[in-house]
Amino acid sequence: MRQLSAMAQQITSSRPVYRLFLAAGLGGLAAFGQAPWDMWPVTLVALALLYGLLRNTPGWFSATMLGMSAGTGHFIVALSWIFEPFLVDAASHAWMAPFAVFSLSAFMGSYWAIAFGLARRIGGGLAFVGAFVIAEALRGWLFTGFPWAQMGHVLIDTPMLYWSSWIGALGLCALVIGVAIAVWHVGAGRRIHGVVGVVGFFVLYAAGSVLSPNADAGPNASIVRIVQPNAPQHEKWLPENLQMFYDRQREFTAAPGDNGRPDLVVWPETALPTMLEDSADLLAGISASAQGSAVVVGLRRTEGPRFYNSLIHMDGTGEVTGLYDKHHLVPFGEFMPLGALMGRFGIHGLAAEDGGGYSSGPGPQMLNLGVLGSAVPLICYEGVFARNILSAPERPSVILMITNDAWFGKVSGPYQHLAQARLRSAEQGIPMIRVANTGVSAVIDGAGQVAAHIPLGEAGWLDVPLPPTLKPTFYARTGDGPILVLAGLVLLCVFLFNRSAARHS
Q1: How far is the C-alpha of 338 from the C-alpha of 220, rounded, in Å?
Q2: Catalytic residue annotation
Q3: Spatial distance between the Cα atoms of 431 and 154, rounded to a whole number of angstroms
Q4: Best CA proximity match to 140, nearest among 495, 433, 420, 444
Q5: Distance, CA of 391 to chain centre
Q6: In this structure, what are the phi and psi dihedrals at residue 434, rounded to the nearest 5 degrees?
Q7: Using one digit for the tens of pLDDT, what is the confidence trace for 477-502?
Q8: What share of the chain is helix, strand, coil (3-state, %, to 5)?
Q9: How far apart are CA 349 and CA 330, in angstroms?
Q10: Any idea what DSSP says for residue 231?
Q11: Bridge partners of residue 416, in order along the sequence
Q12: CB of 28 within 8 A of CB of 407?
């Protein structure tokens, strides 16, 4: 570790361009802590070396460029699955894929640039932690937000997930940056600073394993059937396949279970080939297959000139008793900024109906699932944002997410999306029913652990007892407010301390 730190310092002092290439490589290496690789120690070492480069970078502008390079490298690897949607209709869209991946990665990297530049301007490791938290918070809000592949996400598949119930995703991000700085101190010979941080991390790691609550389903738990048709995106809407995928889901819905009929059957996002207003016969067929079970189905609907990505709840008699319209849409996917203008040039969102794309629903709402209690419904992209649960009208008994991860390919995207679903449950202490078209469909308990799942790329169904809802967590009560206030205070205090020290010197 000391040799690598010295090497980074030597390159920094001799050739600035090498510093940028090294930062990009280390940023890309840090991405291997994300799902499905989950090599979080690699992330810590890579970030430790990046911090060493930052400390030896003269001036805030050079530090900003260093962060830009590191962030772009990180997101090129972490968001490499962005290629996949452009390959669904390769003849029309494949040429856009390299530009989309690089431009999105560079844009996401600009938030790292802010963190690096601000930390260098203020000075010190604590400033780097505070600046990174603020930058990640901005990335989750500005321009509708895209908090994918945050540094804290590398801890989701570890006992550290427990602490998200206290500090959320941004708090986990602070822990990752903090322990990476501690690792650098150990490698640089500053053993007291480093050892305290590293030991503290592993104390929290061990405590998370002990304190994580038991969220297993009881003997009287409601039974949920998750249905995964496994319809690849490039095959899903072919006319010759529409009936096949519909019949497959009906077959899974009608299948006899080991313990009788389930209380709820859930189909994935856009599971029907027709609009809601044209689906009376299809819905009647689903109700017949459900044999008295309630059903949630993802579909599309229109209202005048507007299109919506929606889900409905049908009770045991087949009556539609609940409707939810997706409100947090995917930019450039479900809607196109300046869509009417872009449509004139033949540029449309990948999943949109026309240049304007889908319309947003009214916002988070509750869905009555009968014996399962109330649910906050989420459709695909909405599960990336904790605020879509925190801003629900009331605390739900269950989180209901339907998605079509066929857009994300089979390498990393679906697994990263599943990891974030686990994080949402752990933050809130609320179980989740997650049903995906091609997988991974799962039932997740209130501690963020997968109780049961259908693997990626397989067609099938699974009856799962629904885990209990846990007591409201600290994060469920406070959201990101405390960690953001703390990050701001850290930046302010370090700034004032350093300015005072400079005056005295």
Answers
A1: 52
A2: 269, 326, 380
A3: 21
A4: 420
A5: 17
A6: -120, 115
A7: 999 999 999 999 999 999 999 988 88
A8: 55, 15, 30
A9: 9
A10: -
A11: none
A12: no
Tell me the pLDDT tens digit for each residue of 371-393.
999 999 999 999 999 999 999 99
**One-character DSSP codes across 494-505:** HHHHHHHHHHH-
Place of tokens 């529409």: 242
Contact 105, 79 (CB under 8 A): yes
Question: Position of tokens 């090294």?
Answer: 22
Q: What whole-number distance in Å separates Cα of residue 181 and Cα of residue 49?
A: 9
For tokens 């490698």, name the residue: 187
Distance of alpha carbon 237 from alpha carbon 252, whole angstroms = 20
pLDDT tens for each residue of 433-450: 999 999 999 999 999 999
441: tokens are 């469909």
Report residue 482 as tokens: 């405390």
Residue 51: which residues within 8 A CB-CB, separation 6 or more? 125, 128, 180, 181, 184
pLDDT band at 255 (very low <50, low <70, confident <90, very high): very high
Q: What is this structure's pTM?
A: 0.94
The Cα–Cα gap between 392 and 472 comes to 14
In DSSP terms, which residues pair with 399 in a beta bridge? 376, 432
- DSSP of 405-450, one letter per residue? GGGGTTTTHHHHHHHHHHHHHHHHT--EEEEESSS-EEEE-TTS-E
